[in-house]
UniProtKB/TrEMBL annotation:
Pathway: Lipid metabolism; fatty acid beta-oxidation. Coiled coil: none annotated. One of its GO terms (cellular component) is mitochondrial matrix. It catalyses: (2E)-tetradecenoyl-CoA = (3Z)-tetradecenoyl-CoA; a (3E)-enoyl-CoA = a 4-saturated (2E)-enoyl-CoA; (3Z)-dodecenoyl-CoA = (2E)-dodecenoyl-CoA; (3Z)-octenoyl-CoA = (2E)-octenoyl-CoA. Gene3D superfamilies: 2-enoyl-CoA Hydratase, Chain A, domain 1, 6.10.250.170. It comes from Crenichthys baileyi. Its main location: mitochondrion. The lineage of its organism: Eukaryota, Metazoa, Chordata, Craniata, Vertebrata. This is Enoyl-CoA delta isomerase 1, mitochondrial. Its EC number is 5.3.3.8. One of its GO terms (biological process) is fatty acid beta-oxidation. Pfam families: ECH_1 (PF00378). PROSITE patterns: ENOYL_COA_HYDRATASE (PS00166). Keywords: Acetylation, Fatty acid metabolism, Isomerase, Lipid metabolism, Mitochondrion, Transit peptide.
Length: 298
């Protein structure tokens, strides 16, 4: 698709990058086209201009895995919202039953060329840079399980509201797949739940039930499943009463050290990822994990 090619082209990526933390001041005009509701195959964005709040519904069956296409679409949607001065808040939720997001699409990392893996990782970085550095108030309405990259997506938001359903879990479980959460996943978690909780969680690849996640601060609030969205909306209203410039500067102050670390090391981080993920032993671990997923289903 033209937009996907555009996003990946060298000419557009720097323009997108330059807007991650101060999008309203330095926005590239590339994507200032759409201000009303938009639909797309993997993500549906409802934007209410009267409240200034957009809702991003992830709708990529079966489990909202974060594929290259999904992430590209997510980045473009974010870019559009970020550049719209009237859009001040974003709620991210899932339209798939029982799952918020299954994390990075394993098939993008298994049996793929180094070039493909590099391209994939670049858009994973891009998603994180855009969301973690967003000027908008961002709220994750977590209405299902949210492992690994799904947990990261939640952690990039300013506030997390999760369905109080013990069947769901959330956490950075990468080590269970035989892979390693990179430093910016780790730091996003440290910034949320502290060093010790992160150390234990990452080494063991822990997936937390909602009550445990609340206890360590991985999520901020548990609510009955049918209230996740309404509580997210109410919470958004409260956050939007805070003077915008003061809140945004405070957010940048808290997050920029981590953001800058990735921004200044992007290429090296891509090289690390590619050389790690294409190792034969890691590929074998991913294959075994996928087989385990299929067996669990059978
Ligand atoms: C010196 C230091 C070096 C360090 C260098 C570091 C470099 C970086 C290293 C690499 C870092 C990578 C970081 C990775 C992050 C990730 O996000 S990896 C993905 C992890 N995800 C998971 O573990 C979740 C797996 N899925 C599930 O647990 C369950 O699917 C679910 C989400 C709980 C939902 O369960 P259920 O509703 O029962 O659905 P299923 O039947 O299990 O699944 C339906 C189909 O979907 C497929 N699927 C599930 N998850 C994924 C996925 N993440 N990717 C691709 N496909 C997925 C599943 O196999 C089923 O498929 P079918 O059988 O074909 O229907």
């Amino acid at each position: 698709m033209a937009w996907r090619a555009a996003l990946r082209s060298k000419a557009v990526i720097p323009a997108l990058l330059s807007c991650s933390s101060h999008g309203r001041l330095c926005a590239s005009p590339t994507f200032i086209t759409q201000r009303n509701n938009s639909t797309s195959p993997k993500i549906k964005v409802d934007y209410d201009q009267t409240t200034g709040v957009a809702v991003m519904h992830m709708q990529s069956p079966p489990v909202n895995s974060l594929s290259l296409d999904f992430l590209t679409e997510l980045c473009i949607s974010l870019e559009k919202l970020e550049m719209d001065k009237g859009c001040r808040g974003l709620i991210i939720t899932s339209n798939q039953p029982k799952v918020f997001s299954a994390g990075l699409d394993i098939l993008e990392m298994y049996g793929k060329s180094p070039e493909h893996c590099g391209e994939f990782w670049k858009v994973v970085q891009e998603m994180w840079l855009k969301l973690y550095g967003s000027n908008m108030v961002t709220i994750a309405a977590i209405n299902g399980s949210s492992p690994a990259g799904g947990c990261l997506l939640s952690l990039t938001c300013d506030y997390r509201i999760m369905a109080d359903n013990p069947l769901y879990s959330i956490g950075l479980n990468e080590t269970q797949l035989g892979i390693v959460a990179p430093f910016w996943f780790k730091e996003t978690m440290v910034n949320t739940v502290g060093h010790r909780n992160t150390e234990v969680a990452l080494q063991l690849g822990l997936l937390y039930k909602p009550a445990e996640a609340l206890k360590i601060g991985l999520v901020d609030q548990l609510v009955p499943e049918d209230q996740v969205f309404s509580v997210a909306t109410q919470t958004m209203t409260k956050w939007l009463t805070i003077p915008e410039h003061a809140r945004q500067i405070t957010k940048s102050m808290m997050r920029n050290p981590t953001i800058d670390k990735l921004r200044t090391n992007r290429e090296a981080d891509i090289q690390n990822f590619v050389s790690f993920i294409t190792k034969e032993s890691i590929q074998k671990s991913l294959r075994m994990y996928m087989e385990m997923l299929k067996q669990r289903k059978a």
